[in-house]
Design brief:
184 residues; alpha+beta; five-stranded antiparallel β-sheet; Ribo_hydro-like; Inosine/uridine_hydrolase_dom; Inosine/uridine-preferring nucleoside hydrolase domain-containing protein; hydrolase activity, hydrolyzing N-glycosyl compounds
């Protein structure tokens, strides 16, 4: 982030509203970016974050966000995808192997969940979204309800301006076509 700020200063570019951020892991790097550059948030055009609880829990009209529920890929499709005998498919197999094993062995779930790849597909082409809702959300950092979790005002009890689009369903055929093209 420091390098980005130095680059902007050197070239007279403040980058306001030009950055698309896709966060695929814990958000500590985003927090660090905001700490190093307090104006970082104003430079963001849009942010894509894959996260949330698999099971929703509700308390006082506020509910934790659930993951998209229709993107599990069958084992046969996953095996065909990662065994295409291309350099790219071998790479995909290497980075997705642990998640696939975790789903099969610990969760006893025979399918694969490509959530990080799905987040990238949505950022690239939002026409894959088939169902979404706009809600006001915040991250609970004070420990009042939880710590570090996304809190969604499903019933609009706060009256705050809607600030998050929650993706609920996607076109699985279209996303699988994206995933397959990645391996070729």
């Amino acid at each position: 982030m420091v390098g980005t700020k130095k680059h902007a200063e050197a070239h007279g570019d403040d980058g306001q509203g030009e950055i698309t951020l896709i966060a695929l892991a814990p958000l500590t790097n985003v927090a660090l970016a905001l700490r190093l550059d307090p104006d970082f948030g104003r430079k963001l055009k849009e942010v894509f974050i894959m996260g949330g609880n698999i099971e929703a829990a509700e308390a006082n009209g506020i509910e934790w966000v659930s993951k998209i529920d229709n993107v599990w890929i069958k084992k046969e499709w996953y095996d065909r995808w990662v065994n295409m005998d291309t350099r790219k498919s071998r790479f995909i197999k290497a980075f997705s192997r642990k998640t696939a094993e975790f789903n099969r062995t610990l969760l006893k779930h025979p399918k694969y969940s490509p959530y990080d790849l799905l987040t990238m597909a949505i950022a690239i082409d939002q026409t894959v979204i088939t169902e979404s809702v706009d809600k006001w959300c915040t991250v609970e950092i004070g420990g009042n309800h939880t710590r570090g979790q996304l809190v969604v005002d499903w019933a609009n009890k706060t009256g705050n301006k809607l600030n998050v689009r929650i993706i609920k369903k996607v076109n699985t055929d279209k996303t699988k076509a994206y995933f397959m093209s990645m391996a070729m």
